[in-house]
Amino acid sequence: MELIVLLFIPLLGMVASFLPKREYAFLVLSGIDLGIGVEICRKVLEEGRIFALSNYLFADSLSVLLILIITVLSFLAGIYSIPYLSAENVNEKAKSKFYFLINAFIFSMLLTAVSNNLGILWVGIEATTLSTAFLVSFYKNPPSLEAGWKYLIICSVGIAFALFGIVILFFSVAPYLGYEADVLNWTNLMSAATSNKININLAKLAFAFALIGFGTKMGLAPMHTWLPDAHSQAPSPVSALLSGVLLNCAAASILRIGNVLGATGEKEIVSNLLIFFGTLSVFLAGLFLLKQKDYKRMFAFSSMEHMGLIAMSSGFGGMGIFAAMFHMLNHAFTKSLLFMSAGNVLCSLHTREIEKIRGLFKTMPITAFLLGLGTLAITGTPPFNIFSSEFLIITSGFVTHHLWAVGIALAGLTMVFAGLGFHVTKMLFGEPSFEGNREVSFIQLLTPVILLIIVLVGGIYMCQPVEELLNDIQNNVLRFV
Amino acid sequence: MEVKLAEFFIALAVFFSITIVASNRLFLGIKSYALQSLSIAAATTLIASIENISHLFVSALLMLIVKACIIPLLLFYVTKKLNIQRKIETNVTIFDSVIFCALIVVFSYFLVAKFNLSSRVLGFNVIPLSISVIIIGLFIMVTRRKAITQILGFLTLENGIFMAEIASTHGMPVFVELGIFMDVLIGVIIAGIFVYRMSETFNDIDTEKLTSFKE
Amino acid sequence: MINLFVVGISAVLLGAALQLTLPKKASLKLNYLSTAFGSLLVLTSSFLMLLKGYSNTFSFFSPIPLLKVSFHFDSLSEFFTFVISLVALSSAIYSVGYVEELVEEKKNVKLFNLLYSFFFVSMILVVTAWNGFYFLIVWELMSVLSYMMVSFDYKNRENEFAGYLYILMTHLGTAFIVISFVLLFLKAGTFDFNSFEKLSLSPQYALIVALCALIGFGMKAGIVPFHIWLPYAHPVAPSNVSALMSGVMIKTAIYMLLRFYFSFLPNLGINFGIFILTLGTLSALIGITYSFMQKDLKRLLAYSSIENIGIIFMGLGLTIIFNATGHQTLRDFTLVGVLFHTVNHASFKGLLFLASGAVLKSCHTKNIEKLGGLIKKMPTTALLFLIGSMAICALPPFNGFMSEWIVYQSLLSTFKLNNETVRLLSPLFAAALAVTGGLALATFVKAFGISFLGNPRSKHSENAEEVDTFMKTGMWILALTCIIFGIFPGLIFKLTEGFTGYVPTDNLFHLTSLIDGKSSVSNAAVLTALLTVFTISYLLIKADRTVYETWDCGLNEYNPKAQYTATGFSQPIRRIFSLILKPVRRVDVRRKAFKYYTQQMKVEEEVTPIFEKYLYLPTALSITKTADFVRSKIHCGNINAYLFYIALTLIATLIYINVR
Fold it and tell me: Shortest CB distance from B214 goes to which of C637, C644, C651?
């Protein structure tokens, strides 16, 4: 029941986007959704998995993790959007479009999070692409159109591969379990895989296609090429959701399919591929980040790096899964923080170029602090939370004897630090290139500040529900990856 | 006999995907696509009647309506409306492309050679053939420079997947199938809008010109 | 005792929090006085703990796996707490006067105060951490806080660069520290230090861990060739911070290395010891040579820190050698030397940085060439700087002499060993140490002589004024410790007894050589002798004083520019070491119409920092070049190419799956 309400509310939001007070409607609705998300979390922790809609929807701890990330961040993005859109002078019609699409976007993400059925999951993921394509090209200027086109085409191709993977997965179990829709439920797939009622060769093929397909959506190198374009061109609240939330949904889908294959005993293929693509992404992101011109694009590359870390860590298995999920949570909050602070800069100074911005400490002191601390956080500097998860990732890599992968990833991380640090330092320090105090309004600062507090506290403290969730994911939901 | 016929239609679909590659005029490509969809629809109908699966008829009908009629017409409309040059511009010559396509088919067979596949109705051929259609679709997207030909490539790819679906598992579960059709249709419409906006903004839909992000 | 410690730390934190509510000037007083009070308490408690041999562990679990927030007190961490709070105490008192400058410059003083207090606390946390994961958190916290203070003057390009370089090198170092911890974790199963202590590792494994730790902590300690950040970061930081950074922060790296090499990996081979010894000698030599060449007072001090870290490393290397060969007494004795030099360097380098801060505050320049004659304007500062200089040059009766004497003794004791290599090399190392000592003397003759003696070379030093009482008090505390530790070396032996296990047979005043067991050295005796000689000569030679004008070559116009310059002073050595220093000379001559009459001539000579120019810069450039190349190839902007990558990846993955 909760699950249905959870999905229904963004749909309501789509309707509400035609009302005059649409921004507040969105705020209220996403607040309610957040409450429902918390309730689902409580229920799952208490009762284990919950199902709805004749088992087509379900929530286990991994879905709960995603639901929490989605609802919290969409609520914060809702707060942030109000001053952001008015500062950008967006007209009413465009605003209505914005809220319609963002609600559709949130709906489709929630759908992927709670769908028990692989088919529904695919529809959800494809819907995220379609709903965000226009959000990416929201400003209708040439670069955003170009980014939107590339996003649409590349992701559609990727998702099509994922669909093919799903078809093959269906084919691999259908001869044993029949051709009903239920077969594609995770629960049934898992039991088929563990009881060896699956054509392993086909399952491998399916995993390969799904990995490439969802990997495109997740931003793994070398399928990441759309990511920096799209994330940098979208309006900042959308960038925050794209980078912080959407990538995780794709990652979770890959891991779930990998879990099915892993359950058949082919763990090694899953982990090798995940580690390979993960490491490659981290390293390439490091190389790319050494020189960047556009700060939003720079943060988008950093998302690619973190997705690489998540993939790599999941490939390590065991504690690596815990670390990956923890990292997913941490990255979501930190990256949103960064995109929102970057959004403040863009909103106030109207330039994306790093070269043109100097002395932000003087021009926009609070934003500058948020940006600086956020950068320290995202590069894995303690006491922020990403350090903890990165440390666990490295440790689990060593424990499973993936020394090369960890070594390359460490080199990548160092380059990421060098690149991000260099560019952000350039923006924050020096004689200010803009005159006067250009700080943005209070509410626009409030959201990133909340995120900063979460990120800081998360570095040394983990509240118990989260710990239980992550442990459950490691020991039950994804124990075969 | 009907099984043979169905296999023939599948093979025909592969053939049409190669005609799309080989066509140097846009209209020819779109027509080939329509024919490909038609032959897949025919194969679907045949399988549906052999196995007597009712929802496959729906799929065949949708295929006929959406992919063999609406989408080609939409593409024709966009092409005419935007005065897109009819010649297909390629990065690889058409002759080479066809050779590549042959290689792709061989590769697909190599890929599944040791997999020991069996589908319910159709023989061993379906999976490798659909993989080759998928990769050919991707090949079109890689080598053709116009935005509209990229959509065509994507649609071919999608058809390959559909082929695999109906041949291997007699289609996906109904609601998934509907979702997929919806998604494809909306996707093509959105892509159409993009093409329209791009031609307004850039006066061209050659993707070579869309290279402003280089860092 | 532990309560005293907790109260001290809470006082610091409370002061830092409360100052936020006060107006600027008051906030400053509250913050630094509470920090001083807190560090005094910590100092006292650590002193008491050391005397009583207190040892305890406090652990708090965290839900994050493997993380355990645990504090540990044993003789080593107490000793370092002692050192840190000693420097922090004086630096905090000094800051009350010093930081006023920031108020005048309309900087965000409260933020600075907060960072300062937290920085002190983070250092204490580092040396009391007892879990690898938690250690890394506080370790990086310490780095980040110091980074923020280094780049506090954000508009200044120098600070921007120095801060960036510092935090980047630190981050790189942390990567290696992480590796070394994780390698230990693989064998121990937890990150707790006491489980690390129980390990017995194979020699090769231990060597890898030791090397990773060496690189990681060496970055922080500033050992050659990882030192490049140090001469940039330490000079640009505000002087009270440089005193903490140079005096104690880099020592936290020494602390962890001691833990690694003597607690976690006690079986390191003799060759590793020789390696460390060599590295230390190189650092000492290179550090002091560059130090001698500097014109910037604070940069000179920063390079001299590299030298002193080198000396500490020499002691460390010797200790490992003695440890490996089983010479227990020598090992313990040398270890005392290492710790002794650590505390000594903290006190005199702290003092020197504070004194140079005083100069900077009243002259607004760090350039030695613009100073001069300050002894008349700032007599106390001059005296304090002199004390610091004499201590750092290892002149008796100050503390530097004692610790370097121990290192010499240990070096010369190596002839007792059975290892040919060591016996062959140790005279060389001793000679290198002697050269280092000589150069250090020259360096500080230059630093003191050019800046404080003679006549003012610019307006800056002409208008100098003596600093206020707070700053003087702060400096006096360190100056007194320089003297006390020099005269009572037995005190340090007593304090380090817990960790080194060395039980001195001597009393407080003198040390006995271990080579023959007879000859001994006593600063008190030296001091008495010196005082006697001075008094007698003062009483005997009471000649009349006649004041003459300085001879000005008959030009009849005395010009301060005729004085010896810092560049000129160091020129001979620059010549001698031109092979590694690679001096670059720029001559700018302005002539009048008549060719042979020079109107104005400006000569500048600089040395090339070879490690930056020939190691780091080419590496960085080649990496960025490769990155540029790869990026421009991959991100060509063409969607066809992007799709092509997907196709290739897909095919490659399919082949992989098929082959498996």
Answer: C637
Nearest-CB residue to C647 (from B111, B114, B142): B142
Query: Does residue C203 belong to any structural domain of this protein?
Result: no
Is the confidence at residue C542, as pLDDT, over 60?
A: yes
Tell me, yes or no, whether C303 lies in a domain: yes
Mean pLDDT of B86-115: 84
Q: Is residue C245 assigned to a domain?
A: no
Contacts of A179 in chain B (CB under 8 A): 169-170
- What pLDDT, on the 0 to 100 scale, is given for residue C610? 86
Is the Cβ–Cβ distance between C264 and C196 less than 8 Å?
A: yes
Q: How far apart are CA A379 and CA A389, in angstroms?
A: 12
Q: Are residues C315 and C459 in the same domain?
A: yes
Chain C residues in contact with B191 by the CB 8 A cut-off are: none
Domain count, chain A: 1
Supply the DSSP string of C135-172, one letter for each residue: HHHHHHHHHHHHHHHHT-STT-HHHHHHHHHHHHHHHH
ipTM score for this prediction: 0.94
Count up the domains in chain C and report the number. 4
Q: How far is A155 from chain B (nearest CA, A)?
A: 11
Q: Which residues on B lie below 8 Å from C650 (Cβ)?
A: 135, 138
Cross-chain CB nearest to B186 (options A130, A146, A147): A130
Lowest mean pLDDT among B169-173, C123-127, C332-336: B169-173
Query: How many other C-beta atoms lie within 10 A of the C-beta of residue C515?
Result: 15
Residues C307-324, mean pLDDT to the nearest whole number: 94
- Kindly report, residue by residue over C135-185, the tens digit of the pLDDT: 999 999 999 999 999 998 888 889 999 999 999 999 999 999 999 999 999
* pLDDT > 70 in chain A, percent: 100
Are C633 and C575 in a shared domain? no
Mutation site, A225, A399, A466, interface C, largest C CB count within 10 A:
A225
Q: Where are the domains of chain B?
A: 2-86+94-208
Alpha helices in chain B (DSSP H): 2-22, 26-51, 54-62, 71-81, 94-112, 126-143, 147-164, 174-202
Compute the nearest-CA separation of B215 from chain C (Å).
Answer: 6
Residue B201 near chain A (CB below 8 Å): yes
DSSP for C210-232?
HHHHHHHHHHHHT-TTS-TTHHH
Residue B121 has pLDDT above 60, yes or no: no
* C304 and C444 inside one domain: yes
Q: Residue B59's closest CA among B43, B44, B72?
A: B44
Task: State which residues form the domain around A413.
Answer: 2-477
Supply the pLDDT for residue C512.
Answer: 72
